[in-house]
Design a protein that fits this description.
Layout (H helix, E strand, L loop, with lengths): L15 H13 L6 E7 L5 E8 L8 E6 L2 E6 L19 E6 L5 E8 L2 E8 L16
Antiparallel strand pairs: 1-2, 2-7, 3-4, 4-5, 6-7
Length: about 140
């Protein structure tokens, strides 16, 4: 069965990678760990986003935050402590990877871990449209 792409219109040039990222995000969507996204607008017009991910039980060394292309990737890996003997184990040492697709021009400002929440701040500075005239050469 052939899949028709949203980005297959002839006037949408160079969006192949964007479509691949959307497909990857759709396949990777899982409910763990839960997260919130807040948006705030500064007085100068910059938009700031705060992504808060619930990572109870993870230390700073168990977490990794990566900015790659237009993606924010958050990974968590807990190691098993074999010296412990559990009578009941309701909290599993679980790995995760959560990916967020960022628009062009967005910047990752930083991340902090506090009270079981990993908070990542992302912002979009104001950009002004750039218009330039393209010279047309004659080829004979």
């Amino acid at each position: 069965m052939t899949r028709i792409s949203l980005f297959s219109a002839p006037f949408l040039l160079g969006f192949d990678a964007f479509e691949e990222r959307l497909d990857r995000l759709q396949r990777a969507s899982e409910g763990y760990p839960p997260y919130n996204i807040e948006r705030a607008t500064a007085d100068n017009g910059d938009e700031t986003y705060r992504i808060a991910i619930a990572v109870a039980g993870f230390s700073r060394n168990d977490l990794e935050v990566i900015g790659e292309d237009n993606q924010l990737i958050v990974r968590g890996r807990q190691t098993e402590n074999g010296a412990r003997e559990y009578l009941h184990r309701g909290i599993a040492a679980r790995q995760f990877q959560r990916t967020f697709l960022l628009a062009d021009g967005m910047k990752i400002e930083g991340a902090e871990l506090r009270d079981g929440l990993l908070v990542i701040t992302v912002y979009r500075p104001i950009t002004h449209p750039v218009t330039r005239r393209i010279d047309i050469r004659s080829v004979e």
